[in-house]
Amino acid sequence: MQGEADVERQYPERPVLAVGAAVVKDGKVLLVLRGREPGRGLWSLPGGAVLSGETLKAAVVRELREECGIDVAVAETAEVVERMIPDATGRLQYHYVILDYQARWLQGELTTSDEIEDARWVEPDRLGQYRMTRGTVDVIRRLLARLGSEVRDLGG
Hints:
The chain has helices at about 5-10, 55-70, 135-155, and strands at about 15-25, 30-35, 45, 45-50, 70-85, 90-105, 115-120. The protein is an alpha+beta fold. Strands 1, 2, 3, 4, 5, 6 and 7 form a seven-stranded mixed β-sheet that branches. A hairpin with a 2-residue loop joins strand 1 (about 15-25) and strand 2. The radius of gyration is 15 Å and the shape is globular. About 30% of the residues are buried.
């Protein structure tokens, strides 16, 4: 089912600002199976569009609570990703600028929302077993490589 926000994000006049998070719990990273376009049926980092008046880190916290039912502590920005996805005719159908953050699980059991079909904690060495959105494995690996000092900064 396509929501109003999904339709508004297609064929945009300007890029949509979004956030994502590489959330770590017990050495595993959170992956979600996308239930909506773009990327439906592919695994990715959880996240979504930033609301007007919302800080970037607040958007990460909100999205993780809404999509996955968990609370997280957010570290600093580690990656900026641009996703431009054309339709079958080559016309730009989606354009996102995504700020992917490092985050640490605080509490909550994984649940799914209408935006995601599944959510799993995955060992980093098993990331290659999942069919992911383009570039996601590389982003996760870079975020995890930088996470050591950030976990200490988050009190982990």
